[in-house]
């Protein structure tokens, strides 16, 4: 194939075709440095990252030999910037320093200086020097505008938006991200950069738990990518966030496939934590689908790559009927410092697990912290989590009316977010609250709605748990087990031996049963079990 064919394929975004054409042409006659650059970009976009860096190093050497300072500086920046995101700080610093020295020695006014300011801004973010990062991004945008480089302007403004978010100026930061993405999907930036821009914006949405915006821009990019079939827009890093968005919206088979792709792409690359995050997302999907062996294996892989398997692993133990093991795991996790969205999920899991072991006081404390965090960030997803946790705690406290109000708010938020699984969990709790208040007919409707959603999603473990509960009886499956054994005349010690739990745990279960059913004696509990056909 000819060089001309490679250039034509490159211009229309056919990266695999361009890579093949340039590689074939290079075997016949060594490519010119600008075509080597194109080949390097194509190699990166077909996920041959190591080869891409080697090709750009070759182009850099050719530009130096030809005395083309700007070309040499541009390729040096590209290499340094790529290595920066691969976690190779020393090599990155060397190449970026070389780019700056080349421009300084030649006293050259070049757009590459804007790219270097952008790289400096990213390093400032890593050092938590946010004011310096903001200034550097704005300088980079000004240089990009002066040279008519819309791609540099877009990335610099995106960086500025992300710094504003980190500084707590979320509305202003988000507005900049939206502006950048509107321009990007309108064709204002070079197609090879679209995937990187999308990943950065999706990461920002994840940081502030803005699921609605993440979904909107995911849909917009998918539509744009349909016209660029060879564009690799969803690289390993953003596949993880993308899988989470799909999971929340109930597209579990697609989400699982994206998580698997992310695992395959990231497992043998620099930045082991990214691979760990991919395995964690995969484990979560297996857990929700009731595939417990696969989930446990994936959680262990996440841990191998340096990512904590919590709170998912603790929730797995709870779903497997091991509440005490789940509680021990989640209590250990609570002491760890975590970013806000991750902390919120840990708190929500903590409430669910501690209520299952009847540690209501500790669950109440976790729900309170979650509510404070949700109010501070004002994110709909976190507010829904907080309402659901508050409702569950009110149920455990015996305040079904307060639980009803909180759970109805939670379900409304989940529906607005198009989060069917979470909406089903809220409906399940609502059914318990309604049954406690004596509204068995509406409780049955809520329970049926939850069952239909669980069945549609393939949430087999949740479906099994729901079906184990007796309609109109506000007890968990474990409480029903204890009640049945109480009704046979067994003591707490005998029940503990039968269920392989502690006698203290049995006592908590019995106390909770008495509270929920408004009973005061074991004889009354036995009568209730017979009256409601629970044996």
How do the strands and helices of this protein lay out in sequence?
Elements: H1 3-11, H2 15-28, H3 33-45, H4 49-66, H5 69-85, H6 89-105, H7 112-126, H8 130-147, H9 150-166, H10 170-185, H11 194-207, H12 211-225, H13 236-248, H14 252-266, H15 272-288, H16 292-304, H17 312-319, H18 323-334, H19 340-356, H20 360-377, H21 380-397, H22 400-416, H23 420-436, H24 440-457, H25 460-468, H26 477-487, H27 492-499, H28 503-517, H29 522-531
Q: What fraction, in percent, of the residue positions are helical?
A: over 70%
Give the ordered list of helices and strands: HHHHHHHHHHHHHHHHHHHHHHHHHHHHH
Radius of gyration, whole Å: 28 Å
CATH architecture designation of the domain at 234-307: Alpha Horseshoe
Low-confidence segments, ≥5 residues, pLDDT <50? Answer: none
Regarding quaternary structure, how should these chains be classified?
single chain
Q: What is the number of E strands?
A: 0
